[in-house]
């Protein structure tokens, strides 16, 4: 089986190396040689293990290629290229989460008569897509909660364990190569959101777009929030969450306060972890490297082996339930909320805050005031609410912003049980 690698960067070169170094092992597992024969890259690379060209049509026009591995990144151009390949009834493997988040439905229609592997698009080396499509296929999936971005998890771990500020932890992540020079895609939640949408499509047949779901990042988390979390036995994690609520699917990606004894709370550094709750199995946790050339290459090559074995799903996303789930409106999310406020330290402020909460059908579960510095005329106060709806908390925040006793930006985070 001859392979073309479209994109010879960190992952593409790791795929080529894995196929060549483990050639005998791979052949033994699928009874066929899988040979990388050509790759696409913008420039020539002196250390390339296979021939490189910079014109995609040179590769697409070859009749001897059995599987095309797309590792270019981006959305529109890869969609154009993969569409051409699928129309020729050729097999495709991709690691492109953004492509699948935006064009998964269109590609599913084109891939009906072709093998299409995308294990590497979510959680790197964790075979979570195969787990959902095959290992848990007897279960109705009640919820998926995952640490889906290693960069954000590393930053939050450093803030928690070493007392670093967000910017100090980000700088450390960049120095180690865990974060890009422009880290927006990771720290603002977009990477995790694309992955969550792929998992939700598999589990529920939900064909939502990134713009339709709640996405928040970690850049506004401060040392004060870490302080509060420790005081009340919480850990802050950035999670992608999908769960059934009133026959609709709740999808959201944001930082959460989670009890320190929960399994996901114990996952630190650049690792990924995904908790899945099935109606038959109950909760199961999947843990491993979520990014990096070799972890992603492991998932890509696993898809290639499946194709060589002629194992391909009858549906690209593997969803066979005839029930059509709908996306729950963001405003109807129902959970507990954490609020951090910097306020003038004067008589009557607390009563005004609690009255505004009452006006918006919000009750207080926990209240804490951080000891203030000498001669400081402001205090930092923290609240955890009882369960309420997203629209209630958003109305409250807008009302609080207009109060003259509020001295800094209001920070809100959700609680996950």
From TrEMBL:
Keywords: Amino-acid biosynthesis, Methionine biosynthesis, NADP, Oxidoreductase, Threonine biosynthesis. It comes from the Bacteria. InterPro entries: ACT-like_dom_sf, ACT_dom, Asp/hSer_DH_NAD-bd, HDH, HDH_cat, HDH_CS, NAD(P)-bd_dom_sf. Pfam families: ACT (PF01842), Homoserine_dh (PF00742), NAD_binding_3 (PF03447). Pathway: Amino-acid biosynthesis; L-methionine biosynthesis via de novo pathway; L-homoserine from L-aspartate: step 3/3; Amino-acid biosynthesis; L-threonine biosynthesis; L-threonine from L-aspartate: step 3/5. The keyword Nuclease does not apply. Residues 338-417 form the ACT domain. Its EC number is 1.1.1.3. It catalyses: L-homoserine + NADP(+) = L-aspartate 4-semialdehyde + NADPH + H(+). NCBIfam families: PRK06349.1 (NF004976). Belongs to the homoserine dehydrogenase family. This is Homoserine dehydrogenase. It comes from Campylobacter insulaenigrae.
